[in-house]
């Protein structure tokens, strides 16, 4: 645990990517193989399910420290992170436990089916045998997240520096299905498990937001333009008569979309296709809010299949009959994809992405502006000669989204952040008018400068009305312009609407709270879309 704890400390004290990579390389160079595998698993979202409820951990801490609940909640509100709060409040250790990361994770996995009394005994033994930083790591292993700025790309770059293996191959090796206890570290990084795993997806190629004028991209004839759809990005893998569907978050979602599996079984060839999973009805694309009803379902009922049918718009083909064709030009891959789709009869809900016909860059402005009318987010611009990159590579693929919708709302709740921002209020809840009252419409935590966050935090400290754990109710005085990508009616929200990707566009110091938008104005945006 100390070795892993030292790694986390080394990463947390720097904002420099190269320093983080060097710290990871040092760890991989000296740690036991099982510990290396667990590190990769934890940083790529493969942690086991939480074995202990956080409410129990809170109760055990208050019991051990003799703290009243109000003081614990006040401490939690100040720190902003439960695992860190527990680590700071607990008394000094009485002994020292020296277990490896693998040993701790094995113990925690075995803890899940045990009784609450057995869990309590285990957790208290750990708390009293670990130093403060090690306790924090232990608490995070139970179910928290390591928000230390280590992306999959950073992790892969560290492994590439350590092993001299191509980063693309490493990324391919560590995503998908593998278990710590069923693979060796060398087998994982060399991809020994890939050949026999029919389900293995590829790392997604991602686009940058367009940051230049269209003529600066060069000749229009060098580009292919498609609609940018608001669904979930997915790879459909067909190998050896088996079909798998992966989300961009590297989750296997095959069982959630049985109609797509059935449709793809019509193909005789094997392939890996990249595209967008969308809620579709009568050949029209529905809102993302509709698609959400189909997500994360263990069982998809016949009723749900009828109420929210889904479709797939294919963007790209990455593998064909066992051959990795990602290095081929996009134009050639598109031709291969078209030939594949023309080889069989497919249902209406399985389609190739529509290519926008244009001769001049100026024509695209009107097409983009009309995107919301067809529930599109805007346009995708792809260089004809581009390969299918791993992750983002600036210059080849651009996303040109429609301008966001905006409303003016007042802040009514504020909550402190976590990690480096645990001392400041960074998470906010906003409301609009409904008759003579206020109704919440969105939560947001991005869009402000550090200086603005500091100023708002000072204001919250002076203008808080009530406390609910880490949350503060504040006077409804500060007005903000909230930007969002889409809006839909929703029975799950008190306001009756759900905003898509809300964020703070600007702090409206020029506007009094009396002039914020009404819920009727907000709902009228649904019709304008």
Automatic annotation (TrEMBL):
Protein name, entry field: DNA ligase (ATP)
The reaction(s) this protein catalyses: ATP + (deoxyribonucleotide)n-3'-hydroxyl + 5'-phospho-(deoxyribonucleotide)m = (deoxyribonucleotide)n+m + AMP + diphosphate
Presence of the UniProt keyword RNA-binding in the record: no
Molecular-function annotations in GO: DNA ligase (ATP) activity
Domain ATP-dependent DNA ligase family profile stretches: 303-434
Keywords of the record: ATP-binding, Cell cycle, Cell division, DNA damage, DNA recombination, DNA repair, DNA replication, Ligase, Magnesium, Metal-binding, Nucleotide-binding
Enzyme Commission code: 6.5.1.1
UniProt-listed PROSITE patterns: DNA_LIGASE_A1, DNA_LIGASE_A3
């Amino acid at each position: 645990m100390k070795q892993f704890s030292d790694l986390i400390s080394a990463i947390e004290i720097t904002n420099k990517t190269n320093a983080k990579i060097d710290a990871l390389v040092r760890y991989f160079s000296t740690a036991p193989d099982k510990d290396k595998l667990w590190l990769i698993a934890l940083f790529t979202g493969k942690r086991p399910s939480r074995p202990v409820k956080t409410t129990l951990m809170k109760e055990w801490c208050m019991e051990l420290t003799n703290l009243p609940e109000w003081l614990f909640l006040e401490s939690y509100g100040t720190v902003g992170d439960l695992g860190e709060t527990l680590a700071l409040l607990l008394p000094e250790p009485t002994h020292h436990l020296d277990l490896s990361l693998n040993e701790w994770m094995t113990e925690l996995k075995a803890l899940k089916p045990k009784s609450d009394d057995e869990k309590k005994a285990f957790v208290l033994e750990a708390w009293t045998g670990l130093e403060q930083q090690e306790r924090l790591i232990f608490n995070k292993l139970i179910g928290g997240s390591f928000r230390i700025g280590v992306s999959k790309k950073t992790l892969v770059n560290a492994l590439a520096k350590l092993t001299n293996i191509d980063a693309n191959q490493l990324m391919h090796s560590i995503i998908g299905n593998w278990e710590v206890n069923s693979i060796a570290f060398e087998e994982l990084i060399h991809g020994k498990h890939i050949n026999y795993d029919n389900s293995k997806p590829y790392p997604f190629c991602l686009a940058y937001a367009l940051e230049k004028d269209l003529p600066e991209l060069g000749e229009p004839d060098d580009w292919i333009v498609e609609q940018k759809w608001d669904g979930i990005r997915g790879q459909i893998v067909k190998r050896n008569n088996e079909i798998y569907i992966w989300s961009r978050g590297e989750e296997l979602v095959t069982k959630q979309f049985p109609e797509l599996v059935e449709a793809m079984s019509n193909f005789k060839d094997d392939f890996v296709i990249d595209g967008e999973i969308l809620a579709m009805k009568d050949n029209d694309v529905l809102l993302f809010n509709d698609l959400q009803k189909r997500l994360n379902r263990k069982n998809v009922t016949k009723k749900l299949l009828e109420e929210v049918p889904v479709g797939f718009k294919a963007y790209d083909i990455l593998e064909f009959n066992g051959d990795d064709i990602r290095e081929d030009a996009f134009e050639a891959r598109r031709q291969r994809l078209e030939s594949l789709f023309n080889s069989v009869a497919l249902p209406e809900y399985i389609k190739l992405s529509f290519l926008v016909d244009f001769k001049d860059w100026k024509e695209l402005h009107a097409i983009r502006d009309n995107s919301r009318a067809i529930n599109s987010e805007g346009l995708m611009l792809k260089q004809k000669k581009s390969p299918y990159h791993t992750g983002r590579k600036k210059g080849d693929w651009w996303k040109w989204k429609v301008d966001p919708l905006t409303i003016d709302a007042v802040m009514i709740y504020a909550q402190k952040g976590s990690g480096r921002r645990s001392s400041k209020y960074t998470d906010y809840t906003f409301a609009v008018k409904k008759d003579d009252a206020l109704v919440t419409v969105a939560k947001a935590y991005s869009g402000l400068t550090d200086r603005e966050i500091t100023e708002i935090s000072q204001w919250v400290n002076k203008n808080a009305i009530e406390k609910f754990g880490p949350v503060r109710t504040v006077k409804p005085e500060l007005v903000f312009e909230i930007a969002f990508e889409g809006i839909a009616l929703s029975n799950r929200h008190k306001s009756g609407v759900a905003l898509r990707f809300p964020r703070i566009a600007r702090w409206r110091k020029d506007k009094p709270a009396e002039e914020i938008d009404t819920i009727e104005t907000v709902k009228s945006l649904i019709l304008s879309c």
